[in-house]
Amino acid sequence: MPKDAPRRWDRRMQQRLAHGEAAALGELYDHFASLVHGLAHRVLGDVAAADRITREVFTHIWENPEAYDPKQGPLRSWIAMLAHQQAVRRLRHTESAALADGEGTPEDLERKVHRASAAARADYIVTAMPAPLRAALELAYFQRRDYRQTAADLGVTEDEARRRLRLGLQLLATAHDIPAHTEGPTGTTGYGRAL
Amino acid sequence: MNRPDQPDPHDGEEPGRGPRDGDRQGDHRTPRIPAPRSPVEDGGLPLPQVPGAPPHHVQDARDNGDGGSRGDGLDHHVLKSLLGAWALSACSAPEATAVEEHLGTCGPCAEEALRLRDAVGLLHPEESLDLDPGLRTRVLESCLGRRPPRIPLPEWAAPYDAETARLDALLRDIGDAEWHAPVRLRWFEDDVPVNRKTTVAGVIAHLLAVDGLVGAALGLTDPLGVDAPPVPDPTRRTETFWGASRFPPTRAVREPWRDQTHELIRTVSFAGGGSGRLGVEYGVAGARGAEGCRTFTVPLRDSMVERAFECWIHAEDIAEAVDYPYEPPSPRHLHHMIDLAARMLPVTLAERRRAGRAAPSRELVAAGAPGRSLRLEVEGVGGGEWFIPLDSPGASGSAECEVAHIALDGVEFCRLAAGHVAPEEAAAGQMGDREAIRDVLFAAASLSRL
């Protein structure tokens, strides 16, 4: 597939949505519903809440297809960012209500929001990172292979295996970089063009 | 999305870190980083084997020949490169010790180690959360309610849209090996149950080949290409498609199948609801190729419902083969399918009568006049009541002329029409003319095919 084919698909999808094609909305859902639902579920830990975020995100896209700017990155990143924002907003809302009822402290709330937010972003980073890095992490973490075995399994040098594990974790660590309180409608970091 | 050049924290500027970094750098020598996740041996799992002594990468002259498994004498560069493996507990014990000693003396490495170890905590096994299939309908309806589409889906295409989406969601969840799980396709031929063995991928190839008939009616590219048989016979097309490759189909068949379903939905949407009257030609190949073949035309709107029905029935075959739960279609869509089968019964009865497989007509009435009828009562959500004229497809079904009554569940009726339940065994309440009941049940089963 030519390198720019996905971008062309993104632009075409945007045009079809703008044109009011119901079939395009169905295709959009089929492509991205599990991404949106998965991120929302990671943040909120509740299926019904994730269902609701899914509905809100797709409604937003259907009503505002022009809000997507293909120059800023893939459609997938934009949708992940919308799902993340919406879910974190919801979490903050429900947690603030709990706080008002005397549960926990503002620090607890911030910690919880940050943790949930980082976990969701990490999920996305793992799926979006280059496949060789993901494969190395998969072997070392889930299959509990050491780096020499990982190297042998992947058919690469041990140096390369160590490099991939380190780089994979460095990418993953960026999930922690955005303080939760800066996340708002403008906080698009973490789903940018790089990933 | 490629970031092969992630900056090395040692080479570039330091990203912002916690306040405790920097100022304490080097002021104590004990490892200040807690060890990573518990070693393998604590988990009751077998220890990763440490391979013996490949001579490599140890750049220190003190390397005494037992190679990289030993941690002593590793220089900063090597230790730094080990940080990822260390954080994942994926290096040898001597290496881990060497890394931990190094962290007590090297601030930048200690910072990175902490960061990477925290990152390990973010790794989760992928959750396989099955999306509620009903969620798709709810989300799309909510969207379309907020902003009505300029190009809506024709109502008769909605079951196909929903069923292909459900099957695709199932396919997304199954592993490579499951695509080759054996599936036994079952149907009725000449009033006896027959079956045919294929695989999950083979079933999708079958759907792709037969959906291609509908595509042809709309001017889409035939997935069979030049191999397409001249007779638009679903069975012949499937056999051709299966036979076109020397290798059995794999999961690679999913994408062309899914692309074609999307293309069909898109095309009928643009053609509009009125396109439902367009004809789709089906054929039954004769025993000797084109000779003796016959064709018949089905309106597109019925054809799309029939494809939705096939998609559901075969999705059930697949789900059973890979041991997944699978629900019946939504009541509204199920109703479309039952209605189509019920509407096909009078013509099917007439064909069977001509072939000597159904009782002769008893009373012929003028076309359109009420004739002897069987009341088909389909229970459950999506069900309803249909009056099937028994003696001629030209007669109209009528409550006044009811001579028999069958009552059965909607899903059971669909399984009967799919050839998955034998007519004699269908769990149906029966009252009245036994011959009429038998004829209708057998006619329903004969609607099935590969």
Largest sheet of chain A: none
Number of helices of chain A: 8
**For the record, what CATH class of chain A applies?**
Mainly Alpha
Radius of gyration of chain A: 19 Å
* Sequence of strands across the biggest β-sheet of chain B: 6-5-7-8
Q: Provide the helix percentage of chain A.
A: over 70%
Question: What is the correct CATH architecture of chain A?
Answer: Orthogonal Bundle
The CATH superfamily of chain A is known as: RNA polymerase sigma factor, region 2, helix turn helix motif
* Uncertain stretches of 5 or more adjacent residues of chain A: 180-189
- The helicity of chain B comes to 25-40%
Oligomeric organization of the protein chains: heterodimer
What count of helical segments of chain B does DSSP give?
13
Q: SSE string of chain A, helix = H, strand = E?
A: HHHHHHHH
Give me the Rg of chain B, rounded: 33 Å
Write the CATH fold name of the largest domain in chain B: Four Helix Bundle (Hemerythrin (Met), subunit A)
GO molecular function (chain A): sigma factor activity
Keywords (chain A): Sigma factor, Transcription, Transcription regulation
Pfam families (chain A): Sigma70_r2
Domain RNA polymerase sigma-70 region (chain A): 28-93
Can you give me a brief rundown of this structure?
Chain A is mainly α and 195 residues long.
